[in-house]
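Because showing beats explaining, we think one record worth quoting, sequence and C-alpha cells together, and here it is:
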Amino acid sequence: MSDNTRQFRWIVYIKEGLEWLFAADPNVFVAGDLLWYPVEGDNKIRQAPDAMVVLGRPKGDRGSYRQWEEGGIAPQVVFEVLSPSNSISEMTRKFQFYHRHGVEEYYLYDPDEGTLDGFVRQGTALAGIERMDGWLSPRLGVRFGITVQGDLQLWRPDGTPFESYVEIAARAEQEKQRAEQESLRAQTAEQRAEQESLRAQTAEQRAEHLAERLRQLGIDPDNGELSS
C-alpha cells in the first residue's frame, strides 16, 4: 500500500491512466497494488507492483494475480512509485523478482527526488534505459517525460497526456458549461428569430387592417386613388 498522499496520488495517476489507455481492449488487465503469485503452490513468492499491465488477459476483478490460472502470462509492464520508507534492499529484491519472473518493462519513479528510471528486457535480463525523458514504451506505446520540477508526465500514443481525476473532472465541467452556453445561445437566437417573425406578422396584419380601412373609405390602397 502507499505510504503517503503524494505516493498514492502518483500511483492513481499511473494506474488510472493505463486503465483509460486500454479501456476499449477487453484483453488487457490493469491493476494497482495487487498481489502477483508467479509460482503455483508457493504463496511466499509474491509481489504487489504499484501498477501492472498484463497484455493478453481479460479484464475483471481478481483477489490476486495467480499466474498459473492466467495462462502462465506474467505481467509485461510494472511500475513502482518510491516512498521514503522504501529501502535499497527492498527495491533490490523487487528488481530481482521482476527480473526473474519475466517482466519486460519496469519503471521506477521517485516523486520526492523527482527521478525516473526504467529497465527493458534484453534477452534474459532487464537492462537500464539510458535516458527516460522522451522514452517510448515498446509494449504500451506510452511516452515518458519528467518536468523541471520533477513531476512525472505520461502521454498516450495519440499524444494525449495522462490526466489526474481532478483534471478530468475539471475538463468535463468546462465542457458541460460550454455545451450549456452553446445551448443558451442557440435558444436565444431561436427566441430572437421567433420575435422577428412575430413582429413581421404583426406589421403585415397592421398593413392589411389599414388597407381594409382605406377600402372602406373608398380609397384604393394600391394607388392611393378614390375608388370609383
